[in-house]
Amino acid sequence: MKKAVSIISGGMDSALGAKIAQNEGYELIALHFNYGQRTEKKELESFRKIAKKLNCLERYEIDLDFFKQIGASALTDSSLEVPIAGVEDGIPITYVPFRNGIFLSIATAIAEKHGAEALFIGVVEEDSSGYPDCRDSYIKSMEESINLGTKDETKLEIRMPLVHLKKSEIVKKSIELGVPLEDTWSCYQNEDRACGVCDSCRLRLNGFEKAGIKDPIAYAS
Fold first, then answer.
1. Is the dihedral of CA 160, 163, 164, 170 positive or negative?
2. What is the CATH number of the domain that holds 74?
3. What is the number of structural domains in the chain?
4. Residue 216 falls within a domain, yes or no?
5. What is the pLDDT of residue 154?
6. What distance in Å separates the CA atoms of residue 27 and residue 37, rounded to the nearest whole number?
7. What is the pLDDT of residues 93-134, one digit of tens each?
8. What does DSSP say about strands 157-159 and 58-63: parallel, antiparallel, or unpaired?
9. Any residues with CB less than 8 A from the CB of 143 and at least 6 apart, and which?
10. Is residue 199 in a domain?
């Protein structure tokens, strides 16, 4: 049976991406990163619930403490405040330097070990936070570089099935496919009740509102 490495953050987008991979007949190798993010514990909890419900073949939880050492992002540097005034112009302060490039590199090593054919990542370009490492063109260039830098018999396709979807479309598709949205987490700063005001919460709530569906997780405001 064909195999795919699916990067699952614990959020709604990556959970849907993993479900799509499963529906396409892939055996899933679930991959999660603990990188010193503010909601690391909650995201890990969400990942474990999602991976269990997907009956994944293997699960990897990778610790990357250097992101916290580098800082430069409100997600990993406690001296920086998470913005709550809405989507910023330009690259937001919640961008973690080259995070997806590093994630994909590690995912490639795991894929080679297992003889996987694909990597699934839940990046969203059109309705996201403006992160440069979520762009379709960037991910495609990474696919080319990965296949140049791996064994000749390694032929990996990077799949990004959500890249051109709106958040409302992601919500609807998740409901359609039975993704456990109640187990997902999007908030950048809280681990008990989602703040409801950070960029990620706003995007999620807006998606549910436009889809005409109630978000199953609890919010502080």
1. positive
2. 3.40.50.620
3. 1
4. no
5. 96
6. 28
7. 999 999 999 999 999 999 999 999 999 999 999 766 789 999
8. unpaired
9. 156, 157, 158
10. yes
Is this prediction's pTM over 0.70? yes
- Output the DSSP codes for the chain: --EEEEE--SSHHHHHHHHHHHHTTPEEEEEEEE-S-TTHHHHHHHHHHHHHHTT-SEEEEEE-THHHHH--STTT-TTSPPP-SSPPSSS-TT--TTHHHHHHHHHHHHHHHHT-SEEE----STTS---GGG-HHHHHHHHHHHHHSS-TT---EEE-TTTT--HHHHHHHHHHHT--GGG----SS-SSSB-S-SHHHHHHHHHHHHHT----S-B--
Residue range(s) defining the domain that contains residue 93: 3-211
pLDDT at residue 128 in the model:
64
Q: What is the pLDDT of residues 147-192, one digit of tens each?
A: 999 999 999 999 999 999 999 999 999 999 999 999 999 999 999 9
In a domain, 218, yes or no: no
Handedness of CA 126, 79, 217, 202 (dihedral sign): negative
Residue 217 lies in a domain: no
SS3 percent helix, strand, coil of the chain, rounded to 5, is 40, 10, 45
* Residue 50 to residue 185: CA distance in whole angstroms: 11
Contact call for residues 21 and 4 (beta carbons, < 8 A): yes
